[in-house]
Design a protein that fits this description.
Shape: globular
Helix content: over 70%
Largest sheet: none
Number of helices: 13
Distance between the termini: 45 Å
Length: 310
């Protein structure tokens, strides 16, 4: 029993290192692509590694209270929990992580947990704009989680299971079995909600890079900022893998390297979709963002649930 647990932990650690490095390279690559589109030189692809190493090497004597520094810890825990309880590559023990029969609900809870923990930490910073950032973030989170939850309910009703592994298994046999084609309304609602979950333009209402106070990066520093940057990579990778599993058939093949390549291609296209939208639209105001998610995406999600109930 102990040997099995240690083996599972070792495999999960390898899986985590793969997704962390892949996500860091993906973040650097997308930043480079956006710069080229805008006529700039842009940062090197490996810049995220430099930022993380630099920040982890710094220390600070400034204190804002215990909860302020627990914010990044909770945020990282949310990203790790989201990733660790779902399969990354279907059919291979090394990349199934700690997935089990009820993991979809647990993954959804972890997505909330990191954001709520960060809100609690920001509230103790003493910055006059912190309450504004918290209210913006939680309001938008509530809005985009509604169509996402409706999409999930529709998928669960479609397959009769909360297991992400079983949902991926049900989509095997060809692209025509993917949820994107068997339940397109759920896919549309989920992918629109993913734009808000990624918090890039036009839904970057928390960091709001066009404004002077740009959220957690102005208040967090040293290793705490490094922890947030680490989580950004893990959480981005986890969300892309989750949406790949739910809507795009997961990643599977009889050869592990080919399955990993399929995962890379699918998640790259998902992230590219987010960046194309972000580069094409300016940032919404908070009320515009909320109205958007409570409008068309929610209606599409309701239609998806009704169709599955019928």
């Amino acid at each position: 029993m102990l040997s099995a647990i240690l083996t599972k932990t070792f495999y999960t650690f390898i899986s985590l290192m793969v997704i962390l490095n892949y996500a860091l390279l993906l973040i650097g690559s997308m930043a480079r692509i956006r710069a080229k589109v805008q006529g700039r030189v842009g940062q090197p692809v490996w810049q995220p590694y430099i930022d993380i190493i630099k920040n982890y090497g710094k220390r600070t004597a400034v204190t804002h209270g215990v909860m302020f520094y627990l914010g990044p810890v909770f945020r990282l825990a949310g990203g790790l929990g989201t990733y660790l309880f779902m399969p990354v590559v279907y059919g291979f023990v090394m990349f199934e992580n700690f997935s089990f029969s009820g993991d979809l609900l647990l993954v959804m809870y972890f997505i909330f947990f990191g954001q709520l923990g960060m809100a609690l930490g920001a509230g103790e910073s003493g910055h006059p704009y912190s309450p504004l950032g918290v209210s913006r973030g939680l309001a938008q989170m509530t809005a985009f989680e509604l169509p996402f939850a409706l999409a999930v309910i529709s998928i669960v009703a479609q397959y009769g299971t909360l297991s992400i592994t079983e949902i991926v298994a049900a989509q095997q046999g060809g692209w025509q079995n993917w949820v994107a084609f068997t339940n397109p309304f759920a896919m549309i609602a989920g992918m629109l909600a993913f734009l808000g979950m990624s918090m890039q333009n036009p839904f970057s209402v928390v960091i709001a890079p066009q404004e002077i106070p740009i959220g957690p990066p102005t208040e967090m520093h040293s290793a705490f900022l490094g922890m947030l940057q680490t989580n950004r990579a893990i959480f981005n990778g986890a969300k892309m893998v989750l949406f790949m599993n739910l809507f795009w058939g997961g990643a599977t093949h009889k050869y592990l390297l080919v399955a990993i390549l399929i995962m890379v291609v699918k998640t790259f296209l998902i992230y590219l979709y987010v960046n194309i939208v972000g580069a094409s639209f300016p940032r919404f105001k908070t009320e515009q963002s909320i109205r958007f998610f409570l409008g068309v995406p929610t209606i599409i999600g309701i239609i998806a649930v009704i169709l599955q109930s019928i």
